[in-house]
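Priority: medium. Attachment 1 of 2:
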């Protein structure tokens, strides 16, 4: 059984483990958001179709089953719309994981990325006992993503040189970190947000 739950919820957003049942809605959200996704993200540099996204979901399913990375569709619990993707993934050492996210363009600035990230940080520290640091990286010019890290209380620890792999990238990235002690002291465990 996977280390992280299939579903997470804070009552406003649900994170639902990525699977083929949501293929059509996910591709629809990607097509609507293409210019923003293509601008910022390495993984959206080639056209996405239902056929090509089947392979992405296939990787997500395998990653989740093998506890390598945990990818969720972000769903609005009010209208059941699929509004994005949030991923938690392992880094080279056992004590660090990282978070990634994107949100459908017509649904940005409503708190989805921050809420989804909060659920992932809670889950990382609750379900992965070896993890002590959760990190978020983004281009220095990606102000919306910077704001997500900031709102969650992450600390910007360095500015790093990065290869430019998408049109919006500047070649400089920020590394933001949250450690277990800081998170648990300011975010008391709420086991009810974790639902299988
Ligand atoms: C980054 C992204 C995931 C944010 O999603 P979201 O659901 O809108 O995020 P939230 O609503 O939780 O928070 C966004 C914050 O950024 C702020 N923001 C958005 N655009 C901004 C901008 N251009 N400049 C400054 N702040 C901005 C919002 O006002 C909000 O802050 P607030 O709550 O204090 O008002 C979304 O814009 C996106 O998918 N971008 C394309 C993909 C991407 O860049 N992914 C991240 C890669 S590291």
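Attachment 2 of 2:
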């Amino acid at each position: 059984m996977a280390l992280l739950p299939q579903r997470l919820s804070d009552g406003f957003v649900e994170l639902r483990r990525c699977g083929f049942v949501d293929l059509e809605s996910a591709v629809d959200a990607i097509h609507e958001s293409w210019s923003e996704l293509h601008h910022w993200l390495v993984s959206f540099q080639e056209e996405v179709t239902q056929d090509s996204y089947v392979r992405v979901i296939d990787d997500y399913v395998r990653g989740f089953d093998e506890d390598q990375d945990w990818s969720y569709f972000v769903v609005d619990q009010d209208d059941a719309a699929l509004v994005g993707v949030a991923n938690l993934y392992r880094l080279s050492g056992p004590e660090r994981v990282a978070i990634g996210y994107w949100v459908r363009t017509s649904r940005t600035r409503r708190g989805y990325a921050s809420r989804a990230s909060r659920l992932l940080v809670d889950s990382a520290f609750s379900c992965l006992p070896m993890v002590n640091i959760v990190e978020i990286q983004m281009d220095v010019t990606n102000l919306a993503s910077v704001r997500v890290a900031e709102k969650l209380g992450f600390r910007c620890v360095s500015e790093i040189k990065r290869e430019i792999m998408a049109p919006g990238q500047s070649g400089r990235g920020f590394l933001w970190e949250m450690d277990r002690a800081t998170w648990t002291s300011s975010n008391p465990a709420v086991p009810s947000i974790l639902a299988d």
